[in-house]
Design brief:
The protein has helices spanning 14-25, 39-49, 62-74, 90-99, 111-126, 151-163, 182-185, 194-199, 206-211, 237-250, 264-272, 284-297, 323-330, 342-351, 355-358, 363-373; strands at residues 5-10, 30-36, 53-57, 80-85, 103-106, 138-144, 170-174, 214-215, 221-223, 253-257, 275-280, 307-314, 334-339. By secondary structure, the protein is of the alpha/beta class. It contains 16 helices and 13 strands. The chain starts with a strand and ends in a 29-residue tail after the last helix. It has two domains: 5-126, Rossmann fold (3-Layer(aba) Sandwich); 138-397, P-loop containing nucleotide triphosphate hydrolases (Rossmann fold, 3-Layer(aba) Sandwich), CATH 3.40.50.300. α10 (237-250) packs parallel to α11 (264-272). The strands form two sheets. Strands 8-9-7-10-6-11-12-13 form an eight-stranded mixed β-sheet, sandwiched between helices. The protein has a five-stranded parallel β-sheet with strand order 2-1-3-4-5, with helices on both faces. 41% of the residues are buried. Bound molecules: adenosine-5'-triphosphate and magnesium ion. Adenosine-5'-triphosphate binds next to α6, β12 and α14.
Amino acid sequence: MKSVLRLATVDPDEQSRNAIKSMLLGVDTVWLEAECSRYEFFIDVARQTLPDIALVNLDSNPQKALQLVSEIAQSQINCAILVISTSQEGSLILQAMRNGAREFLNLPLQLDDFVAALDRLRITVRGNSGEVGSRGGKIITVVGVGGGVGCTAIAVNAAASLATNPQNTPVIIDLDFALGDADVWLDIIPEHSIRDIAENITRLDYGLLKRSLTRHDSGAYLLPRPVELEQDVIVRPDDLRRILALLKATFTHLFVDVSKSFSRLDLAVMEVSDRILLVTQLDLSCLRNVIRTMQLLDQFPAIRGKVDIIVNRVGLDESDISLQKALDAIGQSVFWQLPNDYAVMIGCRNNGIPLPQFAPRSRIARSMNEMVTRFDEPADPTAATEDTGRKRNGLFGLFAGR
Ligand SMILES: Nc1ncnc2c1ncn2[C@@H]1O[C@H](COP(=O)(O)OP(=O)(O)OP(=O)(O)O)[C@@H](O)[C@H]1O
Ligand SMILES: [Mg+2]
């Protein structure tokens, strides 16, 4: 998947600006982050939105526009400048390039030329692979091996924990279309949902996508499940991938709370995820499902190796299977263990206030904070069950000699 480039444009002429906007809607790999109708205001717009590409139309006032080009080039904004004009005058092109433009295209724009220029700029901005650079967000899918194991608690609170750093802009995406309750955990009554986005996928723009998200006081954003319970498939895997690619261009972390049905949609998200958190508890039925789930996920090359096991509610029950025995049975290391703290968790949920605000000093909040710092490390390459030398010892031995 090519990463999406974020573009900001300046063009005082409304007609040509609209022509560019409609062309951009047809290009999947670019995202119109901001538009501006005055050359003198654009530098502030760019400072605020930090686009990958600044698209400057010279025609309304070439002198002012060229001055802007050099101002952007000398700023700390670190974006590639693409200049467009109806003029083919050599001296104008030369001046634009000298002032810091990377590309010059003639108007009217030809789609092929535009896409080719974007691809060249992509390499400037994102390196040779053209893939997501440091500015691209991470997709973290949270999936459970049983009902109520704590997926939503983890997705919401991990996002809230990351949001305590103002540089992070985490989004929670509720893909449990039937019974998802991420909105309850955040005490949000959403006006829009993922359904609005899915229905408008062909004319999706930045404004609509932003309007469909609700920002919680913690700093985390929520893209909620549809309001009504419905049986029809409302989002196709390709559309969902596009939504995620667009969100990824703008937000730092996307936590996807998937259903527990391992549907095509769930698997499509896992394929484009950077990390998959497989949440379990230490009981027999969960551990059996960890093994079954790993066997399923191992069959997908794009998923295998990205799965990290999280053991939730450690210490819940005296009869918990010991972690070591569980590990032997699963044949894979555990990425993180979260302690059991029912009073704090249920308090968070019932009040719709995440851990960093509700109980910042609790053990579970501290453990969650530590866990999220590990998300920036690469997923454990030895995580694939195929590669581990550890032998699975069988589940039914788990209770013996405890
Ligand atoms: N570490 C924990 N300690 C104590 N209680 C917890 C912990 N994690 C989650 N819980 C509690 O477990 C219950 C289920 O959690 P949650 O809704 O997050 O699970 P889920 O996997 O999303 O469930 P579902 O299958 O309904 O989607 C909640 O009441 C929550 O408060
Ligand atoms: Mg849930």
